[in-house]
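Section 5: illustrative case.
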């Protein structure tokens, strides 16, 4: 019969081994916290580095409809083509598809919700979340913080 001590030791060993197997992702663009604070505005830092959320309807990018690309404001990696932008009515810039290999997704269970977080694949900056209530052809809604993006006209 397994003793309580053996059970606790085995459980702790299992959890530590599982955590060790999940190495933190490495990114092509890396800065210290002090460098990020110097490179970004306070609002950009809050969203990109601390996974904050800007106020809805506050982004000038909501009204941006020219051809071009939306890029990560932290590292300037192109993340979304303007042709995939749509009016979601949520108050945040929304897209139905990210550019190939531009973003990473991971589970986000913060605030008592099950969501999928969207990160820049180059610097790891928090861009927003993706939901499965978007339009055709993908059915996805990449709900992005405008402050985490910059726009480059075509």
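Designed sequence:
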């Amino acid at each position: 019969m397994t003793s309580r001590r053996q059970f606790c030791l085995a459980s702790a060993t299992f959890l530590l081994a599982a955590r060790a197997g999940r190495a933190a992702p490495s990114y092509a663009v890396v800065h210290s916290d002090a460098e990020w604070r110097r490179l970004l505005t306070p609002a950009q830092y809050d969203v990109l580095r601390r996974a904050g959320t800007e106020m809805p309807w506050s982004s000038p990018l909501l009204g941006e409809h020219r051809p071009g690309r939306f890029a990560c404001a932290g590292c300037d990696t192109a993340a979304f083509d303007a042709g995939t932008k749509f009016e979601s009515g949520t108050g945040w810039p929304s897209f139905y598809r990210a550019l190939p290999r531009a973003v990473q997704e991971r589970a986000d269970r913060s605030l008592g919700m099950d969501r999928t977080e969207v990160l820049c694949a180059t610097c790891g900056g928090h861009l927003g979340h993706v939901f499965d209530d978007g339009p055709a052809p993908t059915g996805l809604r990449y709900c992005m913080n405008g402050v985490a993006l910059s726009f480059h006209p075509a």
